[in-house]
Amino acid sequence: MTIAMQNYLELIYELSLDGKKARVSDIAKQLGVSKPSVNNAVVVLAKNGYVDYEKYADIKLTDKGRKTAEFICSKHQTIKQLFIDVLNIDEKIADTDACLIEHVISDESIKAMQVFMENYQKNKLD
């Protein structure tokens, strides 16, 4: 999956949290792209089984799409928290950098970061 498709999927997931609806217009506005661009991306995501979508309807994640989006979001959060909590990087910079890194980091590296952060948080509480 391309970086752009990962970003679309992640945003659809974030927009659909707490029972909210993911709509083409909201995605276009947040990503600063045209509605036809979003529509094209969503069609690709639907063809690959990540979302259910009919033109002019809300976009719904499939189980595959939800699991993939949750993993992408967890990578983002892990990297961001490592940068903020351990490296003392400004939150805005940490968020921007995490967004860039989450797409290219290996699963092995992210899992190691997650273990590190779990231990770090546990040790902070002791």
UniProtKB/TrEMBL annotation:
Residues 1-62 form the HTH dtxR-type domain. Transmembrane segments: none annotated. The keyword DNA repair does not apply. Gene3D superfamilies: Iron dependent repressor, metal binding and dimerisation domain, Winged helix-like DNA-binding domain superfamily/Winged helix DNA-binding domain. GO terms for molecular function: DNA binding; DNA-binding transcription factor activity; protein dimerization activity; transition metal ion binding. It comes from the Bacteria. InterPro entries: DtxR_MntR_Metal-Reg (IPR050536), Fe_dep_repressor (IPR001367), Fe_dep_repressor_sf (IPR036421), HTH_DTXR (IPR022687), Iron_dep_repressor (IPR022689), WH-like_DNA-bd_sf (IPR036388), WH_DNA-bd_sf (IPR036390). Signal peptide: none annotated. Keywords: DNA-binding, Transcription, Transcription regulation. Belongs to the DtxR/MntR family. This is Mn-dependent transcriptional regulator, DtxR family.
